[in-house]
Specification:
heterodimer; A: alpha+beta; B: mainly alpha
């Protein structure tokens, strides 16, 4: 047979089984004794464990836990708790002093009224414990008043006095079998003990109570009328066990004190019962002794319990106060630390800002000094650049002057139109200093002056340095180009045929290519004057006048008269000197066939009639390439005939046009289409 | 086996938790008043020492106050606090390990508490909730974040382990 599993037993123990599983388990348990034992063992184990886990269930413990949690959760509440604890201590001291004063008063009254001994049921009051039992000022504490951790003192060891330690005990047990139960009333008039058989109840004939007495209490029935007034008890006397002596009327309770019920010692009652037969004085003495002994023991016990209770209370209060003080101190420390931290951080921040300001000031001064030094250097460099520029300009002027002189000398020698180079120099542009010789310069135009843009104002030291370097470079480039142009011009003169009569001693009269430098110009009469045309190198002439490179501007010089003479073929239009020179030339170079060149000038513009500078104007078949100037103008010389003119410019389509180069071709206007091959030429 | 357990009424608890999450200390103190007894019992079961139980209960409530904002809306407060107590009890257990754990009380209860200390924290928690608090499997599952079926198995296992430990200690004593 298969026994039940631990899970089945556990689930059955917890009543977690239902339906078929429950029925199965119950059926098995009915049959299997072992499983029943197992289940019983588990049940017992659970019970024992439950008892072991019950722990402390004291209410005050949880109040203490609540107080502690509240002090942690609500720090302000902890301060209020501290105040309430102090108030509680102060109130307790006041009440204790008051209770002691009342006790002294009771003692005095007892000494003044010896008849108290005849009321064995009326025990002297014990005011001190009553003062502790006063309600605590819970309103100041809140819903959870501080409660002692040790709530109750240990059970009294006094065998004959089962009086409860708590003064608020309603009714103490009867001390003896013959003693009727005491009245449980606390502040209300207390009924006296059961009437003694020998003394019927009588109305109180005692004098009025002292002013401290709250209200008259119905005295016990056994109080004799002749009995002197009893001392004021705390609240209500407890019926004594002695039935014989007439009890005095019960003293009223003073205001504000809880009663303390004390039972007489049972041993005293027993002794009273045992000594009932001796005479009355002996019995009375024994009774007094017993009562005094019981009183002393009760007081001792009460004092002890009170002391224990006070200790417990004071311990709890001290703990709470200490905790509250600790928390307050910790809070103050935290606040001070936070303030100190904030102040330190603020001080550090201020110091850091001061250091940063000093560093910034130093950096500003340094940068100012650097700027001043840089400005000084820039000014120095600018002055040097201006000086260099002036020197470059002077050199350029000298070069131009030299060029003009050379041109003048050449023009004077040939009496022909010398193409004058258009000098364009810009001090501020990258192509400054470029010299373009675009062809023959009209005779009625003057040599263009060197245009120079005004120097831009200096903006900064860096810009000044850059500008200075640029101007220096431009000046040097202009100088080099001018020198090159001058050299080129000087070399080109060698290719120009100069009339012998005008330059007899010139070393460049004849071209080196002619190779007939030793041939003396022998003027020979010619029936028809030969035109004087520029001579190109022999090799080029033999190759059909197709030079590889662009024709140098200086090499295409030709005289207007020679051209005109060639075109017209008339002899009377030239003067005699020129005819003679032409004849001499023809005789000197009979093998050279003069080229018939034509001049072609024009302007390259775009669609919007704006001039295009830098456009390349080419005649590929004769190898002539020129570049337009700033106003888009160009001039070139080429052999007469029908030529193909091509114009190329960046951003524009290529222009091709067949033109006929004549002696003096008119102005050609070329319009380039932007990004389109189709162009249009207007004559 | 249905048991209401120590739970507060759901709507009231949710309102108190919401108020406490917004800083209402009074609402939290109401929760403390309501749950101080079961939490103290659980703490005692986990620590088996009166002073440690008080300290653990206090620490658990303080932890709950500091972290109640992390409690998701709609989740019950008590299981969350029980889990926190279980976690905090581990630290107490470690601290107490070097000092010797000697439960007080009658010999039979001491034997049970000593045997209980040999179980794992989860087993102690489950037994405390089931035997001490009389919680249902469903509530234990809510606290331990376990299915009810798993809780059944673990309760049975914990009981078996406790029984075995008791038997072993009885043999040692003999």
């Amino acid at each position: 047979m298969t026994h039940l599993s631990p899970q089945q037993l556990s689930a059955h123990l917890d009543s977690a089984l239902h339906g078929a599983s429950l029925q199965t388990v119950e059926t098995h348990l009915e049959m299997c004794e072992k499983c029943r034992d197992e289940l019983a063992a588990l049940t017992l184990q659970d019970q024992m464990l439950s008892q072991a886990l019950r722990g402390d269930t004291d209410r005050e413990l949880f109040d203490l836990i609540g107080l502690r949690v509240q002090s942690d959760v609500h720090p302000q509440r902890a301060r209020a708790l501290e105040k309430s604890i102090l108030e509680l201590e102060r109130t307790r001291d006041e009440r204790r002093r008051h209770a002691q004063a009342v006790a002294r008063q009771v003692q005095e009254q007892r000494q003044q009224a010896p008849g108290l001994d005849e009321a064995p049921g009326a025990l002297p009051a014990r005011p001190a414990p009553a003062s502790i039992d006063a309600p605590l000022p819970t309103a100041a504490i809140g819903s959870t008043p501080p409660a002692p951790a040790r709530p109750t003192p240990p059970a009294p060891t006094h065998a004959a006095s089962p009086a409860p330690p708590a003064p608020t005990h309603a009714a103490p047990p009867a001390p003896a079998a013959t003693t009727p139960p005491a009245a449980p009333a606390i502040s209300a008039p207390v009924a006296g003990p059961a009437p003694a058989p020998s003394a019927p109840p009588a109305p109180p004939a005692t004098p009025p109570p002292p002013p401290a007495i709250r209200a008259p209490v119905a005295g016990p029935a056994s109080a004799p009328p002749a009995t002197p007034p009893p001392p004021p008890a705390i609240r209500a006397p407890v019926a004594g066990p002695a039935p014989a002596p007439p009890a005095p009327p019960p003293p009223p309770a003073p205001i504000g004190f809880a009663p303390t019920h004390r039972s007489p010692d049972p041993t005293a009652a027993a002794s009273d019962a045992a000594h009932a037969s001796p005479p009355a004085d002996l019995r009375r003495r024994a009774l007094e002794e017993a009562r005094a002994r019981a009183e002393a023991e009760a007081r001792a016990f009460a004092l002890e319990s009170e002391r224990a209770r006070e200790e417990a209370e004071s311990r709890v209060l001290e703990q709470a106060a200490l905790r509250a003080r600790h928390q307050a101190a910790a809070r103050r420390r935290a606040e001070e630390e936070s303030r100190t931290r904030v102040a330190a951080s603020a001080r550090a921040e201020a110091e850091r800002l001061a250091r940063a300001a000093e560093a910034a000031q130093v950096a500003a001064e340094t940068s100012a000094r650097d700027a001043m030094a840089a400005q000084t250097r820039a000014e120095t460099r600018a002055v040097a650049a201006e000086e260099a520029q002036r020197q470059a300009r002077r050199k350029a002027e000298e070069a131009r002057r030299l060029e003009i002189e050379l041109t003048a000398s050449a023009g004077a020698g040939t009496r022909s139109k010398t193409p004058r180079p258009e000098v364009a120099r810009e001090s501020g542009t990258p192509d400054a200093g470029a010299v373009e010789v675009v062809g023959e310069w009209p005779s009625d135009q003057e040599l263009p002056a060197v245009t120079e843009r005004p120097a831009r104002p200096r903006r900064s030291a860096t810009a000044g340095r850059r500008e200075t370097r640029r101007s220096t470079a431009l000046a040097l480039a202009a100088s080099v180009l001018i020198l090159l142009a001058a050299v080129w011009f000087a070399i080109g003169r060698q290719f120009v045929r100069i009339p012998a009569q005008e330059l007899p001693a010139s070393p460049v009269v004849e071209t080196p290519a002619a190779g007939d430098a030793g041939v003396a110009p022998t003027p020979a009469p010619s029936p028809a004057p030969e035109p004087v045309a520029p001579v190109i190198p022999a090799g080029a002439a033999q190759e059909g006048h197709k030079p590889r490179h662009a024709v140098p501007p200086a090499a295409v010089h030709h005289t207007e008269s020679a051209t005109e003479g060639t075109a017209t073929g008339g002899a009377g239009e030239t003067d005699a000197g020129e005819s003679a020179a032409a004849q001499a030339e023809a005789q000197a170079e009979p093998a050279e066939e003069p080229l018939d060149l034509g001049l072609l000038c024009g302007t390259v513009r775009d669609d919007e009639k704006r001039p295009i500078a830098g456009a390349r104007v080419m005649m590929a078949d004769v190898g002539v390439v020129v570049v337009t100037d700033r106003v888009g103008r160009f001039c070139l010389t080429a052999p007469r005939g029908t030529r193909t003119l091509s114009v190329i410019a960046l951003g524009f389509g290529t222009y091709r046009q067949t033109v006929s180069v004549g002696r003096r071709t008119g102005e050609l206007s070329v319009t380039l289409q932007s990004a389109g091959p189709s162009t249009r030429a207007q004559h | 086996m249905g048991s209401s357990g120590p739970w507060m009424e759901a709507g009231r608890e949710a309102g108190l938790v919401l108020s406490a999450q917004h800083g209402d200390r009074g609402a939290y103190m109401e929760l403390v008043d309501h749950y101080s007894r079961p939490l103290h019992r659980l703490a005692y079961a986990m620590t088996r020492h009166a002073d440690d139980a008080i300290e653990l209960t206090h620490d658990a409530f303080v932890y709950g106050w500091k972290n109640i904002s992390h409690l998701p809306v709609g989740r019950p407060f008590c299981p969350w606090l029980f889990r926190a107590t279980r976690n905090l009890s581990i630290a107490v257990r470690r601290r107490r390990a070097g000092q010797g754990d000697t439960p007080v009380g009658p010999a039979r209860q001491r034997a049970f508490l000593t045997a209980l200390s040999d179980l794992t924290p989860d087993e102690q928690l489950i037994l405390a909730l089931r035997v001490g608090e009389k919680l249902s499997y469903q509530d234990i599952g809510t606290t331990c974040e376990l299915p009810a079926r798993t809780v059944l198995a673990r309760v049975a296992s914990a009981r078996e382990h406790l029984r075995a430990r008791l038997a072993a200690r009885a043999r040692d004593a003999a």
